[in-house]
Amino acid sequence: MWGGPVRSGVPAGGAVPKYYLAKIEIVGLVDELGEGAAVPSERELAARFGIARETVRQALQELLVEGRIRRRHGRATVVAGPKIVQPLSIESYTEGVRRQGRTPGRALVALESQPADPVQAGHLEIEPGAELLHLERILLSDDEPMGLESTFLPAARFPLLRTDFDPGTSLYAYIRGTGVTFHRATEHIETVLASPREADLLGTGPALPMLLLNRVSWDPQGRPIERVRSLFRGDRFSLVAELGG
Questions:
Q1: CATH assignment of 84-240, given 3.40.1410.10, 3.40.50.360, 1.25.40.10, 3.40.640.10?
Q2: Which of 59, 116, 163, 178 supports an S-S bond with 22, CB 3.0-4.6 Å?
Q3: For the HTH gntR-type domain, which residue ranges apply (predicted)?
């Protein structure tokens, strides 16, 4: 979307690592092949470009981390499609994915009650030990895992959620249906590595960089609605913000 790295990644001294030259060649090939096409094997790429397999392996690893290619379980490496672009705004994941012509989905991991610890209670302005509803789901796009979302809500405010809410649908649509209006939110963003459990749920390696978002949302009266921890795959997801001056 935005082109390649500045000045093609050439350092001031002019010396370019061999793996980076290989990466440039492979990127050109990937662009020619198109989304979903099989990427040639390390051996084939090494022979094609006249370089060592170790050099090819390092180049391919960078392209995996960047989301240009992806590995399917039991199948060859293939060219990846465009990343999901999610605006930094008060909208649901479902709305963001649908806007890009893809099919959103969610797989339920847990929907349970638990007592609020002091940190959660502080964010939601409830008493420590008060009942919380914890909803954890795998976020999907065209059936591909994109992220893992944990949402904490005061049980007293949403007493029917466990019986009336379909975990495969938009939580924001359900909340709005109860008469609660989202007004503002604070979101903290950082990069992290997935834990072994998170990597297992998302079907990725534990060394894959992730985008971690922690959000607290409020209604127009200033009452907290939710606390959300969202973990998105760095190779398949990007964020966009519109700024005004």
A1: 3.40.1410.10
A2: 59
A3: 14-82
Round to whole Å and give the CA distance between 154 and 122. Answer: 12
User: Measuring CA to CA, how many Å separate 245 from each of 5, 240, 242?
Assistant: 27, 17, 10
Q: Cβ distance 141 to 105 under 8 Å?
A: yes
- The residues, ordered by sequence, that sit 6+ positions from 165 with a Cβ below 8 Å of its Cβ are 171, 174
Secondary structure (3-state) at 125: coil
pLDDT at res. 1: 47
β-strand pairing of 84-87 with 104-115: unpaired
Residue 202, Cβ density class (10 Å: 0-12 exposed, 13-18 middle, ≥19 buried) = buried
Residue 198: pLDDT above 80?
Answer: yes
How many other C-beta atoms are found inside a 10 Å radius of the C-beta of residue 49? 16
Q: For 66-93, what is the HEC assignment?
A: HCCEEECCCCCEEECCCCEEEECCCCCH
Give dist(CA 80, CA 237) in Å, integer.
12
Query: Is the pLDDT confidence value at 224 over 50?
Result: yes
Strand 237-240 versus strand 84-87 pairing type: parallel
* CATH pick for 6-79 out of 1.10.238.10, 3.30.450.20, 3.90.660.10, 1.10.10.10: 1.10.10.10
Handedness of CA 42, 46, 47, 52 (dihedral sign): negative
